[in-house]
Amino acid sequence: MKTVESIAKSLSGKKIILRLDLNVPLNKQKITDTNRIDKIIPTLDFLVNNKAKILILSHVGRPKGKVVKELSMEPVCEYLKNKLNQKIRLIKANLNNLKEKDLFDNKNESILMLENLRFYNEEEENNEEFAKILASFGDLYVNDAFSCSHRKHASVFSITKYLPSYAGIQLMSEITALNKITKDITRPITCIIGGSKISTKINVIKNLISRFDNLIFVGGMANNILKSKKVQIGKSIFEENCDHVVEEIFNLSEKKNCKIIYPVDVSVSKKIDGKGNIKKISGVQKDDLILDIGPETLKIISKTIEGSKTVLWNGPAGYFENENFKKGSLEIAKKIVEKNKKNEIYSVAGGGDTVAALNSFNLTQHFNFVSTAGGAFLEFLEGKDLPGIKALY
Question: Who has the most CB within 10 Å: 2, 114, 356, 393?
Answer without folding.
Answer: 114
